[in-house]
Design brief:
It is built from 14 helices and eleven strands. The chain has two domains: 244 residues, TIM Barrel; 73 residues, Non-ribosomal Peptide Synthetase Peptidyl Carrier Protein, Chain A (Orthogonal Bundle). Strand 1 and strand 2 form a beta hairpin. It is 45% helix and 15% strand. The chain starts with a strand and ends in a 5-residue tail after the last helix. With 333 residues, it is of the alpha/beta class. Strands 3, 4, 5, 6, 7, 8, 9, 10 and 11 form a nine-stranded parallel sheet that branches. It has a two-stranded antiparallel ribbon with strand order 1-2. Helix 11 packs antiparallel against helix 12 and helix 12 packs antiparallel against helix 13. Bound molecules: flavin mononucleotide (FMN).
Length: 333
């Protein structure tokens, strides 16, 4: 039987969760990852000030469909009063938890004092968390952070403890510094130190791409849940592989045909969920199509062609051509 963990009163299998990824992990992506066994999902980050001042994108970003659950809505902001107002708005969408982004490294976000900039001001970060916890009532609040701002300020353990004291029900740690952005490797010793520092569940994020790296994350950090971001690009199967392992079940990787079928299913989902005409919705599907073709003979050329797709029929034809090529080379999976 797969172990579980609890965040507030929600129970989550201890397999692997889908990481929040702005511009990538939208509803179609979350649905695909949940279908293949992601333990939970998180929305793309939502600006607290943005939704307080304008409700233009709120429904698109915050609506949760049943199959995406358990799902959290992630807020970013640095002003406790705006965060509180934003919580009132997002609670209408009934999230299973509310996550606060204290890890985003991009200048547009840190320039406003939000995201990983909060790691430079532990008192303000605590006030933000306390205000969200107060406004969220029974809904658990989690905080996603990095190791620290820079190599000379690895403060995640004390920072996580402060968030626990402010009422957080769990913390997620992407163990790179803000200065690293996405370069280098995640330092799992930082997640292990956070695990020692707090009693609440710790979610480990960074460089988990398959079963082996997931087991490494659990083994080296003792974290309560592993989280997968980029390793799920064109690869929702990674969640199936990990869930099968913990359930003691056999796992067979998908064949090329199966991968292409899933790619087309993902594209159909993007098209059906988009309000845009096919040609424009296909723009959103292009990068996903390219990711599903990664790692095969001739991938680079096919990926280039994915970025020219304008219709679903073209995607179908490209998938057929790709499958034939792999078959002619004797590629099995
Ligand atoms: C394209 C992209 C968008 C991301 N957007 C968010 C976000 O909105 N909120 C957040 O907390 N982290 C975000 N992240 C960070 C991921 O959640 C994750 O912590 C990080 O990518 C490390 O995990 P990985 O090595 O499994 O990708 C993003 C990462 C990527 C690559």
């Amino acid at each position: 039987m797969t172990d579980t963990l609890r965040i507030g009163n929600i129970t989550i299998p201890k397999t692997a969760a889908l990481a929040p990824m702005a511009g990538v992990a939208d509803r179609a992506y979350r649905l695909m990852c949940r279908k293949y066994g992601a333990a939970m999902t998180v929305s793309e980050m939502v600006s607290a000030k943005g939704i307080v001042y304008s409700d233009r994108k709120t429904a698109e970003l915050c609506t949760i469909t049943e199959p995406e659950r358990p799902m959290g809505i992630q807020l970013f902001g640095s002003e406790p009063e705006f965060m509180e107002k934003a919580v009132d708005i997002v609670l209408e969408y009934c999230p299973d938890f509310i996550d606060i982004n204290m890890g985003c490294p991009v200048p547009k976000v840190v320039g406003t004092g939000a995201g990983s900039a909060l790691m430079k001001d532990i008192d303000l970060a605590s006030a933000v968390t306390a205000s969200v916890v107060k406004a969220a009532g029974d809904v658990p609040v989690t905080v996603k952070m990095r190791s620290g701002w820079s190599a000379d300020s690895i403060i995640a353990p004390e920072f996580a403890k402060a968030m626990e004291d402010a009422g957080a029900a769990a913390v997620a740690v992407h163990s790179r510094t803000r200065d690293q952005f996405y370069s280098g490797y995640a330092d799992y010793s930082v997640i292990a130190a956070v695990k020692q520092a707090v009693k609440i569940p710790v979610i480990g994020s960074g460089d988990v791409t398959d079963l082996n790296s997931c087991l490494k994350m659990y083994g080296e950090t003792g974290c309560d849940l592993a989280m997968i971001g980029r390793g799920s690009y064109g690869n929702p199967f990674v969640f199936q592989e990990i869930a099968a392992h913990f359930a003691g079940e056999d796992y067979t990787p998908p064949t090329v045909e199966e991968k292409m079928e899933v790619m087309l299913e993902h594209i159909r989902l993007i098209l059906s969920l988009s309000a845009k005409p096919e040609e424009f919705a296909m723009h959103e599907a292009r990068k996903h199509a390219a990711w599903y073709m990664n790692g095969y003979y001739g991938s680079a050329k096919f990926r280039g062609r994915c970025y020219q797709l304008e219709t679903y029929a073209q995607a179908q034809a490209l998938a057929e051509e790709f499958t034939s090529l792999q078959r002619s080379r004797g590629t099995l999976c």
